[in-house]
Specification:
Blueprint: E1 6-9, E2 12-17, E3 19-22, H1 31-44, E4 48-50, H2 58-71, E5 81-86, H3 96-107, E6 112-117, E7 121-123, E8 137-139, H4 142-154, E9 158-164, H5 168-177, E10 184-188, H6 196-205, E11 208-212, H7 231-240, H8 244-254, E12 258-261, H9 266-271, H10 282-289, H11 299-303, H12 307-314
Parallel strand pairs: 3-4, 3-12, 4-5, 5-6, 6-9, 9-10, 10-11, 11-12
Antiparallel strand pairs: 1-2, 7-8
Length: 316
């Protein structure tokens, strides 16, 4: 089995596999289903796993890692690249190290490879469901929160730190106070939301982009079928004897980003890795570049259309 290419990150000695398996599912999968799927992914060759406190998948991922070690599927935890995320309810200076430690406890790990701020907003309460009332939504104290993230790295709880769903404006705020700049910005990116401006900005600042929802998050409450049912992508796939998903994933890879893709289906898991031994033609890339663009994931669709939320969604 051909290895998955890796990418080097700033302020991180360990390279990251360019394809990771996402573990966010809607509705959330039960522990055994998630654990079985993750073990299957390790057997298929995945070595990068993306989780978050908010997904409820840290515990099954931790159990799957322990099981993979027991079964000899991997020799050491160091073979894996594990990303998790700080949830908005803990986005305060004094809660960040304890929150990272809580995630490590869930994962049964001594460290994660990457710790991200999940969204650029703070919630003053724990939430069980969304949308939420506007009284609990607050601006992020960027300076204080980033200091907490840097402390997690300095304590060895994480190898690298970064952000998720941050605009150019929010990244500027982080960079203006950071002693350690963010290694990654994980954002929605796919052929129908190509993020050209953000990609250019991140490139100039040495921040790597990881694309989530590279296939449009079909069958979730925030995603849709615009990619899977795109005629342009389907025509390219047919001509190349690939799946539409493989074309969309290859497109993202050719833009120089890494990607997190989620499937608990054994065959699709394998298909999603088969994008490295072929490339798109200039003509095919031109067709994809002309696809109509629309953001799929908004903070308003999760928390509700409150003023601060809409302001964050409108930022570029």
């Amino acid at each position: 089995m051909a290895g998955i290419p890796q990418v080097s990150l700033s302020s991180c000695e360990k390279p990251m596999p360019v394809i990771g398996m996402g573990t966010s599912s809607y509705p959330p999968a039960d522990l055994e289903t998630a654990k079985t799927a993750i073990l299957e992914a390790i057997k298929s060759g995945y070595r990068h796993f993306d989780t978050a406190f908010a997904y409820g998948s840290e515990k099954p991922l931790g159990e799957a890692i322990a099981e993979a070690l027991r079964l000899g599927l991997i020799k050491s935890r160091d073979e894996l690249f594990i990303t998790t995320k700080l949830w908005c309810s803990f986005a305060q200076r004094d809660q960040i190290v304890p929150s990272c430690k809580m995630s490590l406890e869930n994962l049964k790990l001594d460290y994660v490879d990457l710790y991200l701020i999940h969204w650029p907003v703070r919630l003053s309460e724990m939430i069980q469901k969304t949308p939420v009332v506007k009284e609990i939504i607050h601006p992020l104290d960027v300076k204080g929160v980033w200091e907490g993230m840097e402390e997690c790295k300095n304590l060895g709880l994480t190898k690298a730190i970064g952000v998720s769903n941050f605009s150019c404006k929010k990244l500027e705020e982080v960079l203006s106070v950071a002693k350690i700049p963010p290694a990654i910005n994980q954002v929605e990116m796919n052929p129908v939301w190509q993020q050209k401006q953000l990609r250019e900005f991140c490139k100039t600042k040495g921040i790597h982009i990881t694309a989530y929802s590279p296939l449009g998050a079909n069958n979730t409450k925030w995603g849709d079928n615009r990619i899977i049912e795109s005629e342009v992508l389907a025509d390219i796939a047919k001509a190349r004897e690939k799946t539409t998903a493989q074309v969309a994933l290859r497109w993202a890879y050719e833009q120089g980003v890494s990607l997190v893709t989620k499937s608990y289906n054994k065959e699709r898991m394998k298909e999603n890795l088969q994008i490295f031994d072929w490339s798109l033609t200039g003509e095919e890339l031109d067709k994809i570049a002309k696809l109509p663009q629309r953001k799929g994931v908004t903070l308003a669709s999760i928390l509700g259309p409150h003023d601060l939320v809409l302001q964050l969604d409108a930022e570029t």
